[in-house]
C-alpha cells in the first residue's frame, strides 16, 4: 500500500503502463494531498469500459 504522496507519484507510471488485468493499487488521500481523479489511470480505464459497455448495449 502506497500511502505517501511522493511514493504514489513515483509508481504512477508503472500503473499507467500496466496492460494486464487491473492491478490492485489503493491510493489513500491525505489532508495535504486530496484525491485527484484526473491522475487515476485505473478510474479512467473503468470509465472507458463502462462507456464502451453502454454504447454496445445500446446497439442491440
Automatic annotation (TrEMBL):
InterPro entries attached to this UniProt entry: ATPase_V1-cplx_f_g_su, ATPase_V1_fsu_sf
Keyword Cytoplasm: no
Keywords: Hydrogen ion transport, Ion transport, Transport
MF terms (GO), sorted A to Z: proton-transporting ATPase activity, rotational mechanism
Family note: Belongs to the V-ATPase F subunit family.
Protein name listed in UniProt: V-type proton ATPase subunit F
Upper classification of the organism: Eukaryota, Viridiplantae, Streptophyta, Embryophyta, Tracheophyta
